[in-house]
């Protein structure tokens, strides 16, 4: 589908990511084919030239993310797309983008791993790689779509956040969502909020990469401008950008700034869908494709008068602490089904800090967790309910 | 007959019809404004300062708009050039300079993008990016500081350390063979390949300028002296002696016999290869125009 | 629809065959037709590493209500275009559901009692009438639409037109109509 339309259209998750990127104003894609992300590259190979942008296929994923960093530094909104093994190869340069504060978007369409694993089957095994994959202390923003429509809207959101916070943003799709086609009604182009890069409104000599005011993050001036920026992966002087590795004060300030510029804003960045949570005694904490099964279970339980709700993080990182706190104060049990073994469940456990019981359920066989599997966990929490034959 | 590689890659360079720019070296007072700092981390006797000056000389000689000059460098001694130059500069990750520069150039083709790399950047960790940038024939100038050793980390062997050479990781002499970076670039499809030494300063300026002026992928191999590590372990720790050695080893390309072996102590310098073929960024612009026409028409 | 789905508004269809038979295209056509009607639609697929051969399947869910769980575990309607796919997937068909198979390629056994079985020689018919076995998948889509009424025939034909390359459009529309005729006559 090449035309935005308010009529419903049948669109694939990967296509929706590609169209979302175009709608967000991305005009550069560099990538290397890998299942199950390849349709993003294929769609953008066709679409980027049509809208005056560039698609390039690089020699590997390291080159892809490197080229994305270069294109962003030259002033374009840029993205790459990959899957687990390629995401691992990109981690070094994601660290560079964190340190050098380069806005860009990395889409990881998760598949079963480690290694080549289950290349055509979905997984949620990269949620911690997204958080801690690159080296060193860093902050990260990661968004998790659970529908084709969200593949579109969250890719736009990812670009907006990356521009706003001058940071790489990760979209964690998976093989199921990526390959799934869904009837979607895309928002009209005019109705979308698009964050533009802009240029700093100060003289070049006054440019400061580390504003003490965390609400005023200056955009990066492009290479080839009067700012004559120096961009480096070394610890740098906030004004000149020059390496400054000998002063612990400078290093410490920059390190804290890189974390705080995200964490200070985590409550406004974090987006969570709370469904039927009003009087819920048990919550299901589920994200991405698994959240769809969880939602079906909430409907199933509610139809039987059983108070179960869903907390679906749309922003996985920064971790939605506020919503989890609310949940921890309210429910007696949190069920965490995920297509990995306990990765987010540990995080939930740390966040609820003993205030409520956490029940985890993991699946790593490449198959989506079914509603029936979650229903069994719900039934155990309401053992006193007359479940009848259902 | 069909070739396994595209015929444009097999095309032999036209002989003698490419005139290198002749740059008159600039006064130090003209060079200094293009340095951000008078201080470098480079050792006394290191060639990196000479090559840096040659690069500024070439940029000035070609009268490039300084605001349109972008330097992308890798990691290592040579990588530090980015922070010293008063242009838009990127000090990228080890080996990734060419890949970053590819994104820069595609995103803004109006920029003159010069990529400074060490021999490790170019042919070890970044070897894949080097051969593919050459194959694409993207309009970048790769300026390779080849000192045959890893200096920043204290003298370990690199892919251009010669057989038998000593380093802190080849104590009994290197058992591997060295890459000839210029021939590697040529084989991979670079359309401009030149080599010069730190000793042959004017030639170095000219071949850098020729690389920048060339439309396509230009590989310029600057033979750099590292008296502190490579020299001390292998040739001489005396910088002057090291440069005299370069003078002896460097043979003008025109006098270098065809088929003659290129050795540590005898290698051709000057313009080694030159040809013209479709340039990557220009080709992308054509694809863009065609796609837009098909969509709108 | 009510006939095959006991009155619920969620209809689950599984298309199966071997890689290269155009199983995914068949599913996408039905899904696109339902999308045009304003239905909620999800279409998924699973495939192995081979582009040709092996058993492959694609599924579509058409519903009035929101589709949460997107997978098809017990389809209301199954289409089997190869013996391997039949053996791997046919048994999942819901009791009381419909199984349509290519009677020239699939030898059904007696393990599928309780389902409505309809054999039609799609591939042979495509060869005889259109001289192209490659459109057997579209013949099957025509038959499925005719038998189930899961989407109106006009909407399905429009989806055939939009999903196939222009130079094969006429052939595919003919294949679709052939399928409808075969089902009506069967």
What's the layout of helices and strands?
The complex is a heterotrimer of chains A (390), B (297) and C (186).
Chain A: E1 9-12, H1 13-23, E2 26-31, H2 38-50, E3 54-57, H3 61-73, E4 77-82, H4 84-100, E5 104-112, E6 118-122, H5 127-132, E7 141-143, H6 148-165, E8 168-174, H7 175-179, E9 181-184, E10 230-232, H8 248-263, H9 266-269, E11 272-275, E12 282-285, H10 290-303, E13 308-313, E14 315-317, H11 321-330, E15 333-338, H12 343-352, E16 357-362, H13 371-381
Parallel strand pairs in A: 2-3, 2-4, 4-5, 5-8, 7-8, 12-13, 12-15, 15-16
Antiparallel strand pairs in A: 1-9, 5-6, 7-14, 11-13
Helix pairs in contact in A: 1-2, 1-6, 3-4, 10-13
Chain B: H1 7-10, H2 28-31, H3 48-61, E1 69-73, H4 81-84, E2 88-91, H5 97-107, E3 112-118, H6 119-123, H7 127-136, E4 141-146, H8 181-188, E5 192-197, H9 201-213, E6 218-223, H10 227-233, H11 239-249, E7 250-252, E8 267-274, H12 280-296
Parallel strand pairs in B: 1-2, 1-3, 3-4, 4-6, 5-6, 7-8
Antiparallel strand pairs in B: 5-8
Chain C: H1 2-5, E1 11-19, H2 23-36, E2 40-46, E3 53-63, E4 77-80, H3 83-89, E5 98-102, E6 116-120, H4 122-130, H5 136-148, H6 153-163, H7 169-185
Parallel strand pairs in C: 1-4, 4-5, 5-6
Antiparallel strand pairs in C: 1-3, 2-3
Helix pairs in contact in C: 2-5, 2-6, 4-5, 4-7, 5-6, 5-7
Question: Quick summary of this structure?
Answer:
The complex is a heterotrimer of chains A (390), B (297) and C (186). Chain A has 390 residues and is α/β, with parallel strands linked by helices. In chain A, 38% of the residues lie in helices and 21% in strands.
Structural write-up:
- The complex is a heterotrimer of chains A (390), B (297) and C (186).
- Chain A is an alpha/beta fold and 390 residues long.
- Chain A has two domains: 9-191, Thiamin diphosphate (ThDP)-binding fold, Pyr/PP domains (Rossmann fold); 273-381, Rossmann fold (3-Layer(aba) Sandwich), CATH 3.40.50.920.
- Helix content of chain A is 38%, strand content 21%.
- In chain A, the strands form three sheets. In chain A, strands 2, 3, 4, 5, 6, 7, 8 and 14 form an eight-stranded mixed sheet that branches. A five-stranded mixed sheet of chain A has the order 11-13-12-15-16, sandwiched between helices. A two-stranded antiparallel ribbon of chain A has the order 1-9.
- The longest helix of chain A is centred in the middle third of the chain and has 18 residues, at 148-165.
- Chain B is an alpha/beta fold.
- Chain B has a single domain, classed as Thiamin diphosphate (ThDP)-binding fold, Pyr/PP domains (Rossmann fold).
- Helices cover 36% and strands 15% of the residues of chain B.
- Chain B contains twelve helices and eight strands.
- Chain B has helices at 7-10, 28-31, 48-61, 81-84, 97-107, 119-123, 127-136, 181-188, 201-213, 227-233, 239-249, 280-296; strands at 69-73, 88-91, 112-118, 141-146, 192-197, 218-223, 250-252, 267-274.
- In chain B, helix 9 links the parallel strand 5 and strand 6.
- In chain B, helix 3 (48-61) crosses helix 9 (201-213) and helix 7 crosses helix 8 (181-188).
- The N and C termini of chain B lie far apart (38 Å).
- Chain C has one domain: Pyruvate-ferredoxin oxidoreductase, PFOR, domain III (Pyruvate-ferredoxin Oxidoreductase, domain 3), CATH 3.40.920.
- The radius of gyration of chain C is 15 Å and the shape is globular.
- Mean pLDDT of chain C is 92; it is low at 1-7.
- Chain C has a six-stranded mixed sheet with strand order 2-3-1-4-5-6.
- Chain C is α/β, with parallel strands linked by helices and 186 residues long.
- In chain C, helix 3 links the parallel strand 4 (77-80) and strand 5 (98-102).
- The A-B interface holds A 2, 27-28, 30, 46, 49-50, 52-54, 56, 58-60, 62-64, 66-76, 78, 92-93, 96, 222-234, 240, 242-243 and B 36-37, 67-70, 72, 82-83, 86-93, 96, 99-108, 110-111, 128-129, 132, 284, 287-288, 290-292, 294-295.
- Strand 9 of chain A pairs antiparallel with strand 2 (40-46) of chain C.
């Amino acid at each position: 589908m090449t035309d935005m339309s308010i009529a419903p259209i049948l669109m694939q998750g990967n296509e929706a990511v590609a169209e979302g990127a175009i709608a967000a104003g991305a005009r550069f894609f560099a990538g290397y084919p890998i299942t199950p992300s390849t349709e993003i590259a294929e769609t953008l190979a066709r679409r980027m030239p049509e809208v005056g942008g560039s698609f390039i296929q690089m020699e590997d994923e390291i080159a892809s993310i490197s080229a994305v960093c270069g294109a962003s530094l030259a002033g374009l909104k840029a993205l790459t797309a990959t899957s687990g093994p390629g995401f691992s190869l990109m981690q070094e340069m994601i660290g560079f983008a964190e340190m050098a504060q380069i806005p860009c978007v990395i889409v990881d369409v998760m598949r079963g791993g480690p290694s080549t694993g289950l290349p055509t089957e979905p997984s949620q095994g990269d949620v911690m790689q997204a958080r801690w994959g690159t080296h060193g202390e860093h902050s990260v923003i990661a968004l998790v779509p659970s529908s084709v429509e969200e593949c579109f809207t969250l890719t736009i959101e990812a670009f907006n956040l990356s521009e706003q916070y001058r940071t790489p943003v990760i979209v964690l799709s998976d093989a199921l969502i990526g390959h799934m086609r869904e009837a979607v009604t895309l928002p009209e182009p005019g109705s979308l909020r698009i964050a533009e890069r802009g240029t700093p409104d100060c003289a070049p000599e006054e440019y400061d990469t580390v504003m003490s005011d965390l609400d005023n993050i200056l955009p990066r001036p492009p290479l080839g401008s009067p700012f004559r920026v120096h961009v480096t992966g070394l610890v740098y002087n906030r004004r000149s950008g020059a390496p400054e590795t000998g002063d612990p004060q400078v290093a410490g300030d920059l390190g804290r700034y890189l974390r705080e510029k995200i964490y200070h804003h985590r409550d406004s960045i974090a987006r969570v869908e709370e469904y039927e949570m009003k009087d819920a005694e048990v919550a299901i904490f589920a994200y991405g494709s698994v959240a769809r099964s969880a939602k079906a279970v909430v409907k199933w339980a509610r139809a039987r008068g059983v108070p179960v709700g869903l907390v679906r993080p749309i922003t996985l990182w920064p971790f939605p602490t506020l919503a989890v706190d609310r949940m921890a104060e309210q429910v007696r049990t949190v069920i965490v089904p995920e297509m990995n073994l306990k990765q987010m469940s540990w995080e939930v456990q740390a966040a609820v800090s003993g205030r409520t019981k956490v029940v985890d359920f993991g699946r790593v066989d490449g198959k989506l967790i079914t509603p029936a599997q979650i229903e069994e966990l719900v039934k155990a929490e309401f053992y006193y309910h007359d479940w009848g034959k259902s | 007959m069909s070739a396994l590689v595209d015929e444009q890659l097999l095309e032999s360079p036209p002989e003698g019809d490419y005139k290198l720019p002749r740059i008159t070296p600039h006064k130090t007072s003209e060079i200094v404004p293009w340095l951000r700092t008078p201080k470098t981390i480079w050792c006394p006797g290191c060639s990196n300062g000479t090559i840096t000056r040659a690069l500024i000389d070439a940029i000035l000689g070609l009268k490039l708009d300084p605001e349109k000059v972008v330097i992308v460098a890798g990691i290592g001694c040579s990588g530090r050039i980015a922070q010293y130059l008063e242009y838009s500069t990127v000090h990228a990750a080890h080996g990734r300079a060419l890949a970053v520069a590819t994104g820069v150039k595609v995103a803004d083709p109006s920029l003159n993008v010069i990529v400074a790399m060490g021999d490790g950047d170019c042919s070890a960790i970044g070897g894949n990016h080097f051969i593919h940038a050459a194959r694409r024939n993207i309009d970048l100038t790769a300026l390779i500081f080849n000192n045959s050793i890893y200096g920043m980390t204290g003298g370990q062997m690199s892919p251009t350390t010669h057989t038998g050479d000593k380093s802190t990781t080849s104590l009994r002499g290197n058992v591997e063979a060295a890459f000839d970076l210029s021939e590697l670039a040529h084989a991979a499809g670079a359309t401009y390949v030149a080599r010069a030494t730190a000793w042959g300063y004017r030639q170095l300026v000219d071949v850098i300028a020729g690389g920048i002026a060339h439309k396509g992928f230009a590989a310029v191999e600057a033979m750099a002296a590292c008296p502190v590590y490579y020299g001390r372990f292998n040739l001489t720790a005396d910088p002057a002696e090291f440069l005299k050695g370069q003078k002896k080893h460097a043979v003008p390309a025109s006098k270098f016999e065809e088929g003659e072996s290129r050795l540590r102590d005898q290698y051709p310098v000057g313009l080694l290869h030159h040809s013209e073929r479709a340039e990557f960024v220009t080709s992308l612009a054509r694809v863009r125009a065609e796609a837009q026409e098909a969509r709108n028409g | 629809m009510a006939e095959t789905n006991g009155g619920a508004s969620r209809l689950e269809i599984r298309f199966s065959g071997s890689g290269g038979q155009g199983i995914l295209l068949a599913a996408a056509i039905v899904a696109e037709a339902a999308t045009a009607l304003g239905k909620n639609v999800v279409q998924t697929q699973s495939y192995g590493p081979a582009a040709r051969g092996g058993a492959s399947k694609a599924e579509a869910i058409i519903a009035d209500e929101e589709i949460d769980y997107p997978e098809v575990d017990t389809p209301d309607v199954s289409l089997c275009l190869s013996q391997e796919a039949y053996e791997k997937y046919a048994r999942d068909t819901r009791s009381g559901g419909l199984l349509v198979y290519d009677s020239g390629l699939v030898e059904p056994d007696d393990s599928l009692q309780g389902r409505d079985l309809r054999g039609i020689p799609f591939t042979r018919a495509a060869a005889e009438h259109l001289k192209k076995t490659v459109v057997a998948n579209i013949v099957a889509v025509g038959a499925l639409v005719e038998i189930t009424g899961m989407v109106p025939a006009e909407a399905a034909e429009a989806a055939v037109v939009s999903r196939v390359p222009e130079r094969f459009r006429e052939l595919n529309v003919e294949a679709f109509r052939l399928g409808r005729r075969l089902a009506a006559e069967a």
